[in-house]
Amino acid sequence: MRSRQKKVERRRIHRQKHLREKRVFAFRYQQRLASDVHPLYACMVNRHWRDDGKASILMARRLGEGRVTMAAFLVDLWAMGLKDAWGRTDIAASEFDETVSRAPAELETRPLNLGTAKHIVYGGIELARELGFRLPKRYERWTAILGALPAGESPDMSLFRHDGRIELVCSQKDLEARLIGTTPSQFLSRPDVSYILADDDFTLVDEEADEADNAMGTLEQTMLDRVREWCFAQGETPHPLLPRVISATLEAILQGLPRDRSATECLEALPEAEFSEVFNQVGAFLSASCDGDRDELEAAMAQFSGSVASLDSPEQFIQSLGIPE
Questions:
Q1: CA distances from 188 to 53, 175, 197, 200, 254 (A)
Q2: Full DSSP string of 153-188
Q3: 131-170 burial string, b = 16+ CB within 10 Å, else e?
Q4: Which of 144, 166, 172, 312 has the smallest C-beta neighbourhood within 10 Å, fewest atoms?
Q5: Which pTM was predicted?
Q6: φ, ψ of residue 159 in degrees (nearest 5)
């Protein structure tokens, strides 16, 4: 029994390490996206953000012909600071434009100076820390795309609070989930706080992000096991960079899947030529996101592509993983 518990614990530690490495890997890539090599495509905000005290920011940088990377932020300027942050690292520019156009009427958008966007987001981070509100998980991944403030410059905190006071509008559930180190009753009893506890919350992010992360980690491990099996069958030693190649490939594939269709539906409609093009893009992704030797990366990619090519179709490759719909 103890031996089994030790194995389970070792697997848990290994999985956590792998997820940490994957996030650092993605963070490095997103930091480089904020360079001058990828100029600003658009930066938008809801028109009445100053009057409403809530800024919903959508920004994108150019990746190449017709492609962008995007990030989205929700900042409560009067109380909670940065509430939500998410994004996508490689999408069609037309998809970003559609995301902007689908904004509800009350969130009518207008262009925002990138420098102001940075002051809003980074000031929102400082406000959340100062007042004891929990920051979104992995928010650094998306602020990396936004880019840092100029050296020596601090966020403009005059953009925050309402007439010098904290004005909180949220649900009791949201308040309880976001407060750190104090209770809702203690926070609401502060002399500088006025509040309205309503049922509806303004949010941007899927609350099931952790579950999706765990599922992704499981899928990556399953893919790695399949590729290693193929390597052993060929008499080859699995390359140590295989986990990075698999992570990058999944990122490239999943970023392009429509959100209202399952992976199986997308693959059935995906020509093999387009599926192959995904793998052609992985090399550029890897080169931009890690410092590994190019020859070594290509050797790992060759093993992965070889294992995929050994099957009859992309659908068969997905089915070979044995994952449920």
A1: 18, 10, 10, 18, 42
A2: ----GGGSSBTTBEEEEE-HHHHHHHB-SS-HHHHH
A3: bebebbeebebbbbbbbebeeeeebeeebbbeeeebbbbb
A4: 312
A5: 0.59
A6: -75, -10
